[in-house]
Amino acid sequence: MSFSLKQRVLVVEDDARMLALVCQGLREVGHTPMPASDGEAGLELAMRLTFDSIVLDLGLPARDGCSVARAIKSHRTVPILMLTARDGEEDILRGFDHGADDYLTKPFSFRELLARLDGLGRAAARHTARLRVDPARQLVYRNEVPIQLTRNEYLLLAALHRHSGSPVDRHTLMEAVWQDPRVISANALEVLVNALRAKFDAPFSTKLLVTVRGVGYRLQSSADDPAEPDRRQAS
Ligand code: CA
Questions:
Q1: d(CA 168, CA 222)
Q2: 131-234 domain in CATH 1.10.1200.10?
């Protein structure tokens, strides 16, 4: 068995020993775990940082796993693996209802946990495979067509890509690009979005960069992007 996709994993678990063991195990196989010991802390981290997957205990103090999963899924597309000490079918179904993508019943083997995370990671990677970003060169590949971006265009696209499929508000985008948005002019974001659209969307028949009225922008999931370069526009 190989676990080739290295992931940033948020681990939310109130049992301190279990939390330490899971994080240590994840580190040993090359993942980057971030621990949280209650539901509120986990939710705060999930909203503030970017993760490839989340391991979420069902029974948590402060805020239970279902409530945390629901809150995360209303803003993020990140896959969630729910841990449950109970094996009641009702609990498991409740977890799925609230946004868990997979579940494991305690006690579980660590290999099983890794296999499940790998499965979730691969599914997510397939979902976005038609869009690849190369941070070192500020390049994005859309259906394997390389598109060279400026630094700011790249930062904007990367911020949208992190929340792929969900709306991202203007303030978050401006912070991602300029750190201190107070120093830039009011329409700087629109100017940058237009520049990005000209390179990233205009040559393709499917437009992925969508304006969300009153909020900001959204990068459509590219999973069903049939995009061939649009010959009519190119001529
Ligand atoms: Ca627990």
A1: 16
A2: no
